[in-house]
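for the writeup, i need someone to sanity check this before i put it in the appendix. the sequnce is what the collaborator sent (i think, or maybe the updated version? ugh). structure was predicted straight from it, no edits. if anything looks off just tell me and ill rerun, i have time this weekend
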Amino acid sequence: MMKNFARVALAAVAMTAAAAANAMLLEYGFADGMGNREATGPLLYQSNGVDLTITGAASGSAAAVHINGDSGLGVAGNAVAEGNRLGVGESLILSFNPGPVTLLRAITFDTVSNNEPISFALFVDGILAGTFNDLSADGQAFQSVDLTGVNTLGSVFTIQGLVGDEGFRVAGIRAQMPEPGLLALFGLGLLGMAASRRRLS
């Protein structure tokens, strides 16, 4: 009985891994080539039927999102960073629908200059997932930050600037929508393994 339970748990974990490998890829690009403008409300993007709504914030208050057709999104009004970019305390808030589980994979940034480093904090459903400091663009105007290994499972993601006057823009993101039942399988695996350990002790 105990061995069978353990086998079920391991099978659930294996099925979870297989489902994750087949998860639906979501890609959103914000440098649309349509000039510079200030959004009059929340921005809406779509990928594979999944809506992404983006709003802005500065110092804890709502702020308009600025769209740069060549390099992506920032916060309008030059509240902190120059050129409507993301500076200290300025944020872009990304909400996925349907959620509630979207795995954020990478973020592509445009920097002010080829040598300007990037620093930002990433919050997932209001909880700090990690801070990323002084990321070098390595001579490139755009760069992607690989978030593999960071706990980024959620529905609402906040990218908050941690740099000063220069700032940066967010040019695009990549996410994964897990297959239906992925979390249920994962939960079954965890419950099975916990029960097996209790029986062993």
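Residues 8-13 have pLDDT under 50 and may be disordered. The two ends are 15 Å apart (CA to CA).
thx in advance!!
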